[in-house]
Structures are given as C-alpha cells and as structure tokens.
Amino acid sequence: MTIITRADIEQAHARIAPHIRRTPAMNLREAFGHPGPVSLKLEFLQHAGSFKSRGAFNTLLSNPVPAAGVAAASGGNHGAAVSYAASMLGVKARIFVPEISSPAKIAVIRSHGAEVVIGGARYADAQEACDAYVAESGALRIHPFAAGSTIAGQGTVGLEWEQDAPTLDTVLVAVGGGGLISGIASWWAERRVKVVGVEPEGSRALHAALQAGKPVDVEVDSVAADSLGARNTGDLVHAICSRTIDHVALVTDASIREAQAALWRDYRIASEPGGAAALAALISRAYKPEPGERIGVLLCGANVELTKLAELTR
C-alpha cells in the first residue's frame, strides 16, 4: 500500500476510538514570537505518553495475533505504546530497544508488562534483532512506521486536529521514521493545509531521502535520537511523503532544548526532545511563517527524564 486515504484514516479512528484519548488542541491567539494564531496539538497526553498508541492499537485490532504475541523495535515511545496496547488487549509483547534508549522510556515499557530486550547500539540494530525474533517465533511485528496500519493510525491525529482547528494553514510535525507525518500528510493530501516535516540536523532520514529521490541511510547524532533516530525512512514513508508534504525543516539540538525550556516556562508542559522538535522550527525560524499564517505545532511526546528537563530550566 503506497496510498493512505482519508477513508482509511476514518476507519482507523472508528476502530481505535474506544481505546485512545482524544487529545486536545490548545489554540493560541499568538505565541512563541509568531504574530498569528498557533494551535498546539497536545498529543503527549496520549496513553503511554505519545501518539504511537494510535498506530499500535490500529495494527493490533486489524490483524490476527498469533500465540507468540507481538514484537516491536523501538527507541522507547513505540515500545511503550505497543506494550500498553498489548496489555489492554491481553496480548504478550516483546520489545527490542537500542542501548541509547532513555531509562525513563524503558521504565514505561516495562510498567505495562512487556519483556524488554536490548537489541544493539542503535535503532537499526534493535530492528534487526526484532526481525530475527519474528522470523523464529511467528510473532506479529508492529513496525513503528513502515506499515500501512501504523500510518493510518497515526493519521487520526490529523482527523482530530482538523475538527478542533479547522482553519489551519500549516502544520509542523517532527519526523523520526516518518510514520506520523505520513499519516497526517495523507489526511490533508489534496487539501489546502501545508504539512512541513521537522528533523534534527543530526538525524535527517526524510530530508536526505527527499533530496536523493529515494530512501538512503544516514548517520544519527542528536539530542532527540532516542525518538527521532531512524537511519532510513523505508520505501513506504518515502513514497507517501514525496507527494504529500511541502518540505522538511532542519533544527539544531540547541533549538530543541530551547523549545523544551519554553514549553515548561510558559505552559508548564514537560516535553521530551523529540516532542519539542516541531516547536523548535517555529522558535528558531527554521520555518518562517507569514505574519498572519495559522500555524499548527504537534507536541508528540512527553517521556522525558525530569532531571534533564530541570537542567534546561534552571
């Protein structure tokens, strides 16, 4: 499947609605130095602390689950979401995590009852370990971005956001592997809303793929690498994003930290680095809106170590 339709996303929403939170949008008259409306989609309030519960539930509810249960590779948030969804549906889960995963995220995964396996130094290594386990055990693999059911589930963020902020001109969406932006851009495909991806300068898999005209491997080195750390988008994400998004803006680690600090200082929102990356594009002017442009900023994750947040906000 290379096209995710609005109908696919509507069906996914109907399927997962009893199991997820409909997260609010905070609509501000002006904020973060932008002289125009800003809508913050507070997706970090989702079960397990990020948007990824949507895709996890949609995949579990639209596929037969074998006796071996489910398996996933994750820098943390996807694993937490799969662990949570599996526990709610009475399914056993094994999550393969890279060594760079934060202790806070691993603790969330374990809190929902999943078995945690260290699968290597980086996300790609954990994915290889997960794939080997799936081949051996027959478990259902829940991929964080390279699956239509995951992308359709993530696209339900766009469905809700459009209902709560119907006049948006542009939305800024952080990109790791690209499942979230693929779903949101699919929801707004052929509509007037411009979808802009945001990646750290040191973790730019989608930016590199769009430049090369195909998925390519990239090095990963960013403060947000535990959630925005995919080495390669894969064919499905590239196929969708190459026709649906406007462009990808790149942000520095310093601007991500600044966005985290601003969210805490101004709104008492505790965001992880990846969750604040989209806002970093607005604050740093990596994305430069027109004065009256109606901007949406997706705050997508809050599995942050509070000691690190405290260091940023002293």
From TrEMBL:
Molecular function per GO: L-serine ammonia-lyase activity; threonine deaminase activity
CDD domains in UniProt: Thr-dehyd
Keywords, alphabetical: Lyase, Pyridoxal phosphate
Domain of life per record: Bacteria
Alphabetical list of PANTHER family matching this protein: L-THREONINE DEHYDRATASE CATABOLIC TDCB, THREONINE DEHYDRATASE, MITOCHONDRIAL-RELATED
Similarity annotation: Belongs to the serine/threonine dehydratase family.
Protein name: Pyridoxal-phosphate dependent enzyme
Species of provenance: Microvirga makkahensis
